[in-house]
Every structure is written in structure tokens, then in C-alpha cells.
Amino acid sequence: MERFGLVGLPNAGKSSLYNALTGGGALAAPYPFATKDPNIGVAMVPDERVDRLSAMSESRKTIHAQVEVVDIGGLVEGASTGEGLGNKFLANIREVDAIVFVLRAFVNDDIVGPSDPLEHLRIVEIELALADLETVEKRLHQTKRAAKLDKSMVDETEALQAAYDALADGLPLYRAGLSDDVREALQPYFLLTNRRVLVVVNVGEDDLDAIPEHEARVAAEFNNAGDNVEIIGMCVQLEAEAAAITDPEERAEILEGFGLGEGALFRMVRSAYHLLGLRTYLTTGEQESRAWTFYEGSTAPECAGRIHTDFQRGFIKAEVIQWDQLLELGSWTKAKEVGKMRVEGKDYIGQDGDVMEFRFNV
Question: Which pTM does this prediction carry?
């Protein structure tokens, strides 16, 4: 299962956000390093398409897509040289597929540390960039020597040099304007800043009206990041309280009462899901309606393989229709009768929102 890690300074709201996303019981305390070892849980990816298809098919079970969430202990200034949880903290980040920065934008006299989200961002980015710089510097020295004898190492050396130049200026790779080819060449090094990033700006309960202002202020800092960064403002405390309410109607009333609509939590999970390059296809029937996760650009056999490797190995064809078209027609049978069901082969690239049935033989 793909995973994203919650990263930020101590007491920025990471553990509260983790609890809201996973229903977990991580300790959320107003002092540094309440989280020493990472908490790991699973978050459901909200998707009304699954619910509506389930209602159409009168399915016995409804299964949403899921992602793994890792609540990583707080980072402090000097982490790249061993301060705070130091190397342990950085090692935990390397094990996640994407990063969610949690930046504090609320004042609380009982909590140490800055309340300015840009100060949080400055510390986090510098520490991650310094850690990457150390990794790149070691590898660059090796590849420069190797490239003198092996010309196939030239591209790798150039990619490392580009990374080094950016990191030496304190610039994380996701906002260094590197080409896709360069970033791809850097993938084997699992660099901390060579990823897309989701930023959560955590505001106070009495500051909800200022969420757009906080988002814009942080977004201005990322004006050189292109589409590598997405920013969502929310009050984590309120979102966590609403998430703890099991009755969906009561939860919706609470969120609406605060003027939060569906809440930012669902938007954040969907954004993190897409941040990982994940998309969803669906299956529906009397037994179950289910959301299946696949990577953008996957072929129909690769999508089938997400159900079982036998489906991919013995793939023959896929019957495909978009979810909203199927709902409009009312049933799988009706879609076939009116000729709206497409038959796709091995070269078909799966699309988000496809409803699929696979034919295979092993």
C-alpha cells in the first residue's frame, strides 16, 4: 500500500491530523517529541462514485481505496546533523512515497516554537535540503571519477550536478525547476526533496475566515515549484473532532455549522492520493462495489493485476465504461444492450473513473 508521511516541527498538529485521518490513537501532546517512533495507520480515500455505484447495484459490500499514513516525529533545526531525533527522523521520511508538510499557523502560549507557517517551512526545507546535499555530494564525487572511464555515467553525473547546485543554494529539488529527465535520473537515490509535496497549513479555531489568506501567503513562497506543490488550509483540531463523529449526517452538520462544507480532511486525502500518482478504477456488482488503485499511465492488464496477478498474466480483454455513464444507464446489462460498453485490449490506458470487468484465461 502506498504511504505518505506527515512531516513538520514539533506540535504543528501532525498527530492530531494522523488521528483524524486514520481513527488512530496517536498521542497529541503540547510538548516536543511526544511522537518518537512513527505511528502508521490506514486512511480511506472518500469517493462518492463507489457509494453511488454500490447503491445502483445494491451491493452487499462497499470498499473504498486506502492509503497508508505515517505520523513522523517532529523535526527540529539541526536535524540534518543529528539534533532532535536526527537521522532516525530522516530515515523515517525516506520510507514514505510522498510528504505532507504540516505547518503551524496558530498561536498557543502553551506550545513552544514559532506560530508563523513560513518559519516552519524554512526550517523543514533547510533540514531536508541539507540532508539531500550530503547524499548528493558523496555520490557526485564517485560518479565524476567513474564517468572519466565510463561514458554511460555522464547523464547521471549531470543530474547529480544539477541537484547539487540547487541544494547548495538551500533549494529543495521540488522547487528547483529541474527537468523531468533529471528528476527521473535522481530517483534511485531516494532524495527527500525529489518528490511532490502537499502542504497543510494548520490554523486556529478562531481563525477560520483567514484560511484563504494563510494559503495564499504560503503559496507565494512556492511560486517556483510549478505543480510539484499543493496547499490546503484547515483547522486540524476541528477536522479531528468532526472525524471522530461516526454518524455521517451529524458530522456533516458540525462541519456545515463551522462553514467548512465537506471539510478539508477529505480534500486533503484525495490530494495526497493523487500526489502519489494514483488513480481509481471501479468494479461493481451484487457482491461488492469497490475502488481499485492504479498508477496513472497503467495499461488495462496492469490495472487487472491490481486485483490478482492471474488477471494480468492471462488478460484477454476489458469491458469498460465511465462511471457516470453507467449510472445514467442504470445497469451493466443495459449498458451492453445499448452498445455503450467498450471492449478494450492490452494497449488500453486506464482512466480515472473507469468501471471495468476483465476477461482472462490462465
Answer: 0.83
